[in-house]
Amino acid sequence: AATMAARTPGAALRLCATVFLLEMAFCKGFVEDLDESFKDNRKDDIWLVDFYAPWCGHCKKLEPIWNEVGLEMKSIGSPVKVGKMDATSYSSIASEFGVRGYPTIKLLKGDLAYNYRGPRTKDDIIEFAHRVSGALIRPLPSQQMFEHVQKRHRVFFVYVGGESTLKEKYIDAASELIVYTYFFSASEEVVPEYVTLKEMPAVLVFKDETYFVYDEYEDGDLSSWINRERFQNYLTMDGFLLYELGDTGKLVAIAIIDEKNTSIEHTRLKSIIQEVARDYRDQFHRDFQFGHMDGNDYINTLLMDELTVPTVVVLNTSNQQYFLLDREIKNTEDMVHFINSILDGTVEAQGGDSILQRLKRMVFDAKSTVVSIFKSSPIMGCFLFGLPLGVISIMCYGIYTADTDGGYIEERYEVSKSETESQEATEESRELQEPRSGQSLVPARQEPKDVLEKKTD
Ligand SMILES: *[C@@H]1O[C@H](CO)[C@@H](O)[C@H](O)[C@H]1NC(C)=O
Ligand SMILES: *[C@@H]1O[C@H](CO)[C@@H](O)[C@H](O)[C@H]1NC(C)=O
Predict the structure, then answer these.
(1) What is the 325 CA–ligand 1 centroid distance (Å)?
(2) Tell me: the pLDDT tens digits for 2-16?
(3) By residue range, what is the domain housing residue 84?
(4) pLDDT beyond 80 at 179
(5) Whose CA is nearest to atom 5 of ligand 2?
(6) Does a structural domain hold residue 46?
(7) pLDDT tens column, 375-385
(8) Is residue 134 pLDDT above 70, yes or no?
(9) Does any domain span residue 369?
(10) HEC secondary structure over the chain
(11) How many Å lie between the centroid of ligand 2 and the Cα of residue 448?
(12) Is the domain of 261 the same as that of 344?
């Protein structure tokens, strides 16, 4: 096909288009169009459903991916059925399932509805469907199986032991957190030899080429420990991940770098954070999460600040405060010192979620909206903001001249009551509304999520 494409690009293109069309028709066959009968018919099956709205852009983007998901689930013989429902036509059913935005992806299994919040790619969605539709706790009967799982999953949890109240708690935690991670159970013989267990039963997390044991007294509630430990110690951060890390309540130390810049300042900072994450794991892993982020766009919006790249920022995910160092971080000692001074309170926190900060956020969002409109289309910007400003200045001029005549207040009052003026005013306000809806241009923090809704029909 490649040589053919090289010889006759036109023909190849046409062929692709035909194959594409065929594929579309072919793929679509594996996604069921659901209607009101779904509510009664779904009971015996596990369903993966895309609740969409015909007008929504993100839904349209998801559609071809969804068709591929349907095809692949069918071809691998998955028991999970794939469907889609126009949530605007069947809004009462959609709202019963807790659909509040579009598109919403849910896996429905008996009385449980699991929300998918990850990246909308075929592989991620299919992985989610396998994980959530399968057994909540998967037994690992042999060392071979254990090794196999260790190769496949970067983070997973294992319960070791027989029946116990800890096991009940583990099952409860798993039913809530299966949307995020994997849960297994094993006997002591199956667990690798390097694992030493002081007590049985035990819950362990395997990650970062090592393992950690849950300690009921130090770590508190099992679910919240799992929520804190379900991430690798060092991560490539983006807005989505940073938002997810909010659940952990940990401090997040991030090297803000330009990944395309190969100069020593950038590469060194990344390896400093990696080293601290690895070498000081025992000291910091309970309170800290480490990683790097490419570019400062997102973080600037989050902090309402202009950070110079490269730099290190430490975020407190539980109160939205952050810490910056006024000096350059040149080696791991500098970084460890920085962390320790955050912990002992000698570095002052910035930001937070006080009323003042929220006001600042409003002003900041408004400003970035205006800037982004001007950047994407200067003419539109001039029209949106220039026109009202022009009108206002003409009005000011009018007021000023009226004032010199005296008694302008009464005059203004009468004028604003007249029909023509009020009509103009509403048109104006409509125009002023538009930039507000453009706020989605700003990569703001994502909405709160509900991971799991227990549904009783
Ligand atoms: C790379 O980073 C250094 C230090 O921040 C900076 O001086 C340099 O201009 C950057 N190079 C490129 C190609 O952006
Ligand atoms: C992070 O925020 C929490 C909640 O406000 C607070 O208790 C904790 O002390 C903060 N951590 C640091 C290091 O400032």
Answers:
(1) 20
(2) 433 334 444 444 443
(3) 31-121
(4) yes
(5) 319
(6) yes
(7) 777 777 666 66
(8) yes
(9) no
(10) CHHHHHHCHHHHHHHHHHHHHHHHHHHHCCCEEECCCHHHHCCCCEEEEEEECCCCHHHHHHHHHHHHHHHHHHHCCCCEEEEEEECCCCHHHHHHCCCCCCCEEEEEECCEEEEECCCCCHHHHHHHHHHHHCCCCEEECCHHHHHHHHHHCCCEEEEECCCCHHHHHHHHHHHHHCCCCEEEEECCCCCCCCCCCCCCCEEEEEECCEEEECCHHHHCCHHHHHHHHCCCCEEEECHHHHHHHHHHCCEEEEEEECCCCCCHHHHHHHHHHHHHHHHCHHHHCCCEEEEEEECCHHHHHHHCCCCCCCEEEEEECCCCEEEECCCCCCCHHHHHHHHHHHHCCCCCCEECCCHHHHHHHHHHHHHHHHHHHHHHCHHHHHHHHHHHHHHHHHHHHHHHHHHHHCCHHHHHHHHHHCHHHHHHHHHHHHHHHHHHHHHHHCCCCCCCCCCEEECCC
(11) 21
(12) yes
